[in-house]
Each structure stands twice: as C-alpha cells, then as structure tokens.
Recover the amino acids of this structure.
C-alpha cells in the first residue's frame, strides 16, 4: 500500500525544530551554570533562521494544494 505525505517538508521541519530546541536548551543550561561558555546570540540567530525557513516552506506547500 502506498502512502503519500501532503506536506513533504513537515518531517524536515520537525527535525529542524528538535535540533534547534536541543541547542537552545543546552545554551540556557550553560548560561545558568557556566556563563562564559554560553552562546545565546547564536541561538537567537538560529531560532530566527528556523522560523523563516519553516514559514518559507510551509507557504510553498500550501501554494501547491
């Protein structure tokens, strides 16, 4: 039986969100316990890029429907 995915980018988006969430959580931990090792600015940039990427590919998927 063949199954089709309506939004093929959904799994990639979920993986990207998971990866960025892990890094943000780790950097928040570092900020609390080891402030000299934290890279919160990098995390903010990654969150912004993730949001833009997900919005871009969701609009392409919606346009195809």
């Amino acid at each position: 039986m063949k199954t089709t995915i309506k939004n093929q980018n959904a799994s990639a988006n979920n993986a990207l969100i998971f990866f960025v969430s892990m890094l943000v959580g780790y950097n928040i931990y570092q900020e609390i316990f080891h402030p000299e090792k934290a890279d919160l600015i990098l995390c903010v940039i990654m969150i912004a890029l993730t949001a833009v990427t997900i919005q871009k590919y969701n609009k392409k998927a919606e346009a195809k429907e």
In short: The CA atoms of residues 19 and 52 lie 16 Å apart.
